[in-house]
Amino acid sequence: MKSRTIKVDYLARVEGEGGLLIKMKGQDVSEVKVNIFEPPRFFEAFLRGRRFTETPDITARICGICPVAYQMSSCHAMEDALGVKIPAPIRALRRLLYCGEWIESHVLHVYLLHAPDFLGYEDAIRMAKDHPTEVQRGLRLKKAGNTIVNLLGGREIHPINVRVGGFYKIPPKSEFLALAEELKWARDAALETVRWVATIPIPDFERDYEFVSLRHPEEYPFNEGRIVSSKGLDIPTREYEQHFAEEHVAHSNALHSVMKERGAYFVGPLARYSLNFDRLTPAAQEAARAAGLGTVCRNPFQGIIVRSVETLYACEEALRLIEQFETPDKPYVEAEPRVSTGYGCTEAPRGSLYHRYRLDERGLIVDAKIVPPTSQNLKTIEADLLQLVPANMEMQKDRLQWRCEAAVRNYDPCISCATHFLKVSIERE
Amino acid sequence: MTASHSPTLVIGVGNEYRGDDGAGIAVARLLRNQLPSHVRILEQSGEGTSLLDSWRAAASVVLVDAVQSGAAPGTIHRFDASQAPVPAGLFPCSTHAFGVAEAIEMARALHELPSRMVVYGIEGADFADGNGLSPAVQRAVAQVAAQVGRELRNSSDIERRQEAK
User: Fold this and answer.
1) Which residues of chain B have a CB within 8 Å of the CB of A65?
2) Is B98 helix (H, G, I), strand (E, B) or coil?
């Protein structure tokens, strides 16, 4: 029987270092492994003994692309532990900061990391020679997100203005209002982005995923809500570990998450969208429909469209928040240490990010747990490949390898986060 | 980072919390207050789109970053990126899918590359979590700072002489 191996030593266009190995015997796939070899970063261990106030700044260092997500989940967990209630104006500013991070992260992925897969370019640089207008639009759109993070986070990379209870400093109202004009351009550019990605040829592929994301009674989820799934899960964040577990697997430095009852599940834009379509703005819903999406999207390759729809949503939401800006009475709420355990889950651009901390009477961390979205998706990524490869056996090896790499990039995996880095390899014996 | 309208930029790239990856940042800090007033000094993480934005209005850029090419730690590499691409895979310590080399090539593809783009690479030894540079890298940082200082002072002298003519 003919055997083949597809092996990608270093996966390009992903954050961090990892590889992919696929072994095939005839028409069957005998093995799929997403290998992660950025050394584990042991963040959970070195948080022990640190003060509760330090977590937003320490955990933000786990990722250069989604530091806001780490800051938000850690703050919410600490506030849950210490019984801190966040006033509405601070809550609104946290949503605004998250809009900035979603725009930055999604636009980078849509334009520079994923579009080249579908348009047949090795990378965004080669794509830019043929599609300069689109790439320029993407770069400016991403910058609109950077500007929000800059203003509210104190700086673009590793924002430093977030603290447990709120912010260190709230910039004056005039500085928020000054963002509005560029954000109006960004909203139009985001709509153009949805229209553009809708014209890109995207492979047909669907699986019956169990989608997991936050759901809030009124809002498209960023910081708050219950953890829900497309197969009936509906729990508060504090029950997360009763339903989800992490497993060590030999080929990876990242842990693989499973839902205890049913195994692999899916977090990220497709899950959020499919569980919260009714919470999108009318314009985002209309753009999604015009792009050919239903209210549920089960084709992970269409993640590029869903990310574009979420970018449009984030631009609109940012504009709304700026128009309704209210200066908080105080930039933060004071928190008093006590023996406690707190839980936080927020929607990072790549999906739900769970934090849990146990504190002693001085507010020092006794125990920490961080579950990033990429490790929650690893099992699902491998399962996608198990179905994708046999369905595309007739493809030339290099085309099949390309398709497999694109399938991994569907998840915008952030390997830096998950190990707390990707290579593809397909073997046909 | 807002776009600079200054014609000359020095950009130190890296992460000071990842050992020798902080070499570029260290050079930028050594050069503070040492350069002609029209030269702006920036510190950047190496995220490509921010880099593109930072040098958009600049005519001349000197960028310093740590590299890992297999040469001896502290080895200083110098590339004229306005003439040819910097060798691929030189910046393996970047955890960014779109980093320094990609930003330079993207700028070239979009015809936005500053007319002068010099890249200094300082060969690192240790990129593990933690502060501080290896001794060889520390020495190279001082040497690169001195060399960039001379290069920029000389070029501004030349510009002044040309203006005076």
Assistant:
1) 47, 96
2) coil
Its pTM stands at 0.90
CB contact, 8 Å: B109 with chain A?
A: yes
Q: Is position B3 within any domain?
A: no
Domain region containing B50? 8-164
Q: Looking at CA atoms only, how far is residue A236 from chain B in angstroms?
A: 34
Report how far residue A299's alpha carbon sits from residue A302's, in angstroms, rounded to the nearest whole number: 5
The domain total for chain A is 1
User: Is the predicted ipTM greater than 0.85, yes or no?
Assistant: no
Domain hosting residue A220, numbered range = 3-428
- Left, alpha or beta for B79 (phi > 0: left; psi -120 to 50: alpha)? beta
User: CB of A145 within 8 A of CB of A107?
Assistant: yes
| The pLDDT value given to residue A427 | 60
| Under 8 Å between Cβ of A399 and A389 | no
Tens-digit pLDDT profile for residues A131-143: 999 999 999 999 9
Ranking A36-50, A257-271, A284-298 by mean pLDDT, the lowest is: A36-50
Number of domains in chain B: 1
CA dist A167 to A55, A321, B119, Å? 14, 16, 37
Chain A residues with CB under 8 Å of B45 CB are 64, 157-158
Q: What is the dihedral of CA A279, A284, A290, A294, to 10 degrees?
A: -20
Asked whether residue B21 is domain-assigned, the answer is: yes
